[in-house]
Amino acid sequence: MTALTPEILLRAYSVGLFPMAESRDDPNLFWVDPELRGVLPLNGFHVSRRLARTVRQDVFKVVADQDFTAVIQACAEPGVGRQSTWINDQIISLYSVLNKMGHAHSVECYRQGRLVGGLYGVSLGGAFFGESMFSRETDASKVALVHLVGRLTAGGYDLLDTQFVTDHLLQFGAREIPRDEYREILDRALSVKGDFYSLPSAISGETALQSVTQTS
Predict the structure, then answer these.
(1) 193: exposed, middle or buried (C-beta count within 10 Å: 0-12, 13-18, 19+)?
(2) What is the pLDDT of residues 172-186, one digit of tens each?
(3) Which residues of the chain have pLDDT under 50?
(4) Could you give the C-alpha distances from 186 to 13, 130, 180, 209, in angstroms and in order?
(5) Closest residue by Cα to residue 128 from 148, 154, 101
(6) Among 21, 44, 49, 162, which is least packed, fewest CB within 10 Å?
(7) Helix (H) or strand (E) holding 50
(8) What three-state secondary structure class fits 10?
(9) Cα 182 to Cα 127: distance, rounded to the nearest angstrom
(10) 183: burial class by Cβ within 10 Å (0-12, 13-18, 19+)?
(11) pLDDT computed for residue 85 by the predictor
(12) CB pairs under 8 A, 24+ apart, for 180-184?
């Protein structure tokens, strides 16, 4: 792969491609274009009663874009069930620049001032491309996802791309769609102007849930 720039990266996302590394320590990147693409329909997002109760109780302080670099670095670390990740130093550097450009965002969960979970992704038009999430406490990444969906729904987004579907995402309603169908949905979403900051940076769990349930 030729040297990537933030501009090339955004162009790749606009045609359905995204980069990965073989491992955390591999300096090389390759393009990925899955035959089956994971999406999480914003109008079919499912939150269990137990998780909704946790979100509503504001167990964590949840904010957007307070410390993007800390989130992506945490996502790059080994975790439960994963000895290595696909996020290398080049990815950390590129997406940190995208964050400064307003095209990459994080949702972060804090408890007593400590970052305990979160996620990050790329925003382009009315599409949000979820990249990775991490959790250092029970339900932290799930709460971050609920807040993300609430924010995207309130901001008029059409597409939440999860790239792949995992057991973790299935419980929220994620599904796989063929590449051609995905590209049609992507094209429509890119013509929409999503507003990641239609809600304040810090919102309550009740606000996030109200936004989610308006369309689910």
Answers:
(1) exposed
(2) 999 999 999 999 999
(3) 215-216
(4) 9, 14, 10, 25
(5) 148
(6) 49
(7) helix 49-56
(8) helix
(9) 12
(10) middle
(11) 84
(12) 182/16, 182/37, 182/39, 183/15, 183/16
